[in-house]
Amino acid sequence: MSAPGAGDWQRDVFRELGGVVAGTEQSASPPPAAAQPAPPPAAAQPAPAAPPLPPPAPVSVPVVMPEVRRTGQRARHGDPPARRVVRALRKGLSATAKDTETAVRLARAVQQPITTGRQIAVTSIRGGAGKSTVAALLSLTFAHYRADPVLAIEADPSLGTLPRLFGAGEVRWTFADLARILDPSMRVTDVTGYLLPFTGGGWLLPGSQGAVGAQLDLDAYRIVMTSLRRWFGTTVVDCETLPAEVARTAMTTTQARVLVAPATAAGVATTRTVLDWIGGLHRSMLPTTVVALAYTSPGMGVDPRKAAEYLGVGGAAVLPLPYDRALAEGGEIRTALLAQGTREAALALAAEVMDRAMSRGRGGARGGGTAAGARP
């Protein structure tokens, strides 16, 4: 028999547990004891994060496939044999002090000391104008005359040709690879391990391994250009054709720019439109711009002096780059085979660009807005 008051006790327990109790007194079994939650386990110390693994090294890819290389044409001299004979006779009989003075003056302009790295963008309004050839010629000229490190950057990764123009056998590390690897603690000797050396003591950073449709990320471009400036005195950037985003960025952030124009009526007219656009960006850009009037075939008859009058807007300089059989082949640039006129034009172009990169708007030493040299 239940002790007096037991029903009341059960009713109170059910009420606390939220149970429903009938109005009449009912016997009920006491509910099972509520399970007590287990105490939480002691907080485990987080394991130290493993250091990130370095990106896998890419596999080297040949610049020119062996079967294609075997079928390549024999390299030709830029000047025909008859012209070389005549030039040698004239040089031996009538070498003037003026010629020597001009060469020395141009060399000194290329060699002028710099305090911070100079970056020079090379671009054009369309493909086939000779943009990469001009970038390679400038890089080779700077590397020949300057004592500080010279870097050529291929910021045109889609079917870029700089490795082939420099005679590289294969490409391993590219622009995008270096952008992921660069670290503030790296030294120049670390960086050059990812670059390709070329004749004269310069270095080349390829844009890609020749993949069709390869793209260059704008953030990667900014990382590489900002990081490498402290190690290389002169950097020549072979950009995409305008109006690509990287090309527009390079045109506005470098100390000087070279706009390669085909020596045709259409090429000159289109290039003038680009110069008007450059002048609208900032008034200091045109005085630090040089137009390379490229003669890519022997039949191009645009007068460089008339072209200079039309293109020398706002202080831009216009210099011709004559047709050269050695360059027309499209293979490795061998400076010993270049025509004499090509070597002279490349030196004049490099001197003009360096002057403008250093002056930043004061104009070149050879007079802005005029074409240097004789008609090609």
UniProtKB/TrEMBL annotation:
Q: Highest taxon of the source?
A: Bacteria
What InterPro entries is this protein classified in?
A: P-loop_NTPase (IPR027417), ParA/MinD_ATPase (IPR050625)
Annotated region (Disordered), positions in chain: 1-55
Compositional bias per record (Pro residues), positions renumbered to this chain: 29-55
- Indicate what this protein is called per its UniProt record: MinD-like ATPase involved in chromosome partitioning or flagellar assembly
Native organism = Streptomyces cheonanensis
Top-down, what is the taxonomic lineage of the species of origin? Bacteria, Bacillati, Actinomycetota, Actinomycetes, Kitasatosporales
